[in-house]
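User: If you would, consider this record:
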Amino acid sequence: MKKLLHSPLATGLLLIMLSVTAIIMENTAADGLYHQLVHASLGGWPVEKVVNDVLMSIFFLLVGLEIKRELLSGKLAQWDQRILPGAAALGGMLVPAACFVFFNHDNPQALNGWAIPSATDIAFSLGVLAMMGDKVPPSLRVFLAALAIIDDLGAVIIIAAFYTHSLSLIMLGGAAAVTLCLIIMNKSGVKSLSAYLLTGMLLWYFVYHSGVHATVAGVILALSIPHTARTHAQFSPLSRLEVKLSPWVAFLIVPVFGFVNAGVNLKGISAEQLLSPIPVGIALGLFVGKQLGVATVSWLLIRLRMARMPEGATAVQFYGVAILCGIGFTMSLFIGGLAFPGDDVMQSELKVGVLAGSALSALAGLIFLKLATVSRHNEQVA
């Protein structure tokens, strides 16, 4: 049981359970209770806003910590380790976005959601891969984790660059001043986590009121927290904070986000809406675009000998992992909320697309990996 609670599988299962619960409640007699929970007031803010602006800032703080650690002392510390997942992540963002644009090119409002299928949900995808146990080489888990982390970095850049509205120069100036303060603290050798977190709260306030999405503050704070490249890296302030935050994010923030945002009312959606450009573009972007983008770019790099196939993995197993990259879920729902704020119809359509594309990717990827394992076993026996 203890081993299960510390595995990606537990996080993925909890996320799925709460998300499915939200969908069931939204489409049954419990819909009133669901709305009461989501729109209840916490300190004058609706629960939905607290989750999306405050708790998700903590989620992105952890994402930023993971990115910095991996770049300095982890799976992405060397350039040859970054090439394959980095290029695959880029292909896995561009092709799904192009797929969405193809279906929605004649609708300027819908085009605002071009980035929705470009994301990969690290918790969900690693959770599904964990269902394979030791039948999948560890190198593929490393590849998927690295790709998802780089993908998250891309999502942060997209959010900051394309989903920022009505900027406040005064608040931006305040955020810049606090960021400079964090940099000075880092360069001066300040190791106190409390000092960084208190300064980070001030940074969050300025970023929130600047027009840039508040979650960007979490990443900026993470990148300022000290971490030694190799020696005693596990005792650095960054590593200590990452260890403290990980269980809270895995077992509270991500599942709660899924519960609050996955609830889609299917009763009011017609067949015509289900097949409209937005859900189709998102679903196909995740399920088809992701695997094609990841696999094609990876194949080219390996073919040109610019990168190597993950150790011990077959081409079929690798493609199965490429399919799992289409599980967008948390990040796709989050970006969708920024793309279509206040539009209930588009919100419902994007949720249908994200749920469909993510579910197809999870099921197809799992089946593909199962078949690949059976095929490899038969070859070894023969």
